[in-house]
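>> received
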Amino acid sequence: MARRSRKARPGGGAERARRGYARSEERNEALRAGLTPLAPGERPLALTVAALLAAALAVVNLGALVLGVEVDGRRPSTVAVLLFGAVMLGAAWGLWHRRYWAVLGFEALLGVTLAFAGLSLMVASNVAALVLCVGILLGGGWLFWKLIRVMGRLQAPPRPG
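>> returned
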């Protein structure tokens, strides 16, 4: 049986990829043109929810540390709890003040959380664990999706005039 030659055809894969990239860029430009930058003082619901969630996580974790709460019979590392609290308070401040880096960082943490919640579904051993995982996936997924548009609006250039 004869083997077919894998020589590049003129206008083959590379040209097709260039055309696809150009079409993709056209769609991206159209989407970017439709984004309106955030007005001064405007804070979309997703941004407010994210800032409050970050602040609540920091306060609850720091409060649990002060109260001496144990997890699986042991106290969590003080340094780890303080570090997490500081990161969450910094994220809350940045989200509230509409900083792009804060939204991007919170999205990254939210993505990791969603991945863990999804993987945890495989080992959920009771209804409470199942409900918790699904709740995290639904709430976190909604917030993740909504923050993507907020990031686009934060990067949108101001309209002329």
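>> The mean pLDDT is 88.
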